TrEMBL record:
Keywords from the named record: DNA-binding
Domain (SpoVT-AbrB): residue spans on this chain: 4-45
Lineage summary: Archaea, Methanobacteriati, Methanobacteriota, Stenosarchaea group, Halobacteria
Domain of life from the UniProt record: Archaea
The keyword DNA-binding appears for this protein: yes
Protein name, as recorded: AbrB/MazE/SpoVT family DNA-binding domain-containing protein
UniProt cross-references to InterPro entries, sorted A to Z: SpoVT-AbrB_dom, SpoVT-AbrB_sf
Keyword Transcription regulation belongs to the record: no
Amino acid sequence: MSDATLDDRGRLTLPKEIRERYGDRYHVVDIHDGIKLIPVAGDPLDALRDEFADVEKSAEELREGARETALDEAGR
């Protein structure tokens, strides 16, 4: 963990190690006890492909499974 300070224009400079690890773009999320910075991928589609690379079901199979689960939870 490290500290960062806002400059007189409200800009925050992140430490070099953080920028190298997570990149230069972030979503700023206001949470109940502070803020959270969430890195934004340079190419969101590549990030999604990487995230779901190990999923073996098709999109249709995933959709059908979600539909079945929702119907069961609704008391089909």
